[in-house]
Amino acid sequence: MADFVCQIPVPQTQQELDQAVQTYLNANLSGLDLFCHWQAIREAAIAQSGSPSPAESAEAGAIAGEDSY
């Protein structure tokens, strides 16, 4: 898989996140631009939700669903 670097900044506030979503929905994006915008929005939403991302949970040794056993 090719390595690439997204230059889209991750929104830091709820207002920036809302604006990024509106831009994403209204822009005619495709390919790498589409993916980079989506990824920035996703990372901001995860950070603002207060929930650890799946990668952070894996790094902490958590196993998804382990409390259900």
Q: Which properties best describe this structure?
A:
single chain; 69 residues; mainly alpha; 3 helices
What does this 3D model show about the protein?
This protein is mainly α and about 70 residues long. The chain has a domain at about 15-55. Helix content is about 55%, strand content about 0%. The chain contains three helices and no strands. The chain has helices at about 15-25, 30-50, 55-60. α1 runs antiparallel to α2.
Q: What is the count of helical runs?
A: 3
Largest sheet: none
Number of strands: 0
Span between termini = 37 Å
What structural class is derived from the secondary structure elements?
A: mainly alpha
Could you tell me the strand content as a percent range?
under 5%
Query: Any idea what the radius of gyration is?
Result: 15 Å
Low-confidence stretches: none
Biased composition (Low complexity): 49-69
Region (Disordered): 46-69
Topology record:
Layout: H1 14-26, H2 31-49, H3 54-59
Region (Disordered): 46-69
Biased composition (Low complexity): 49-69
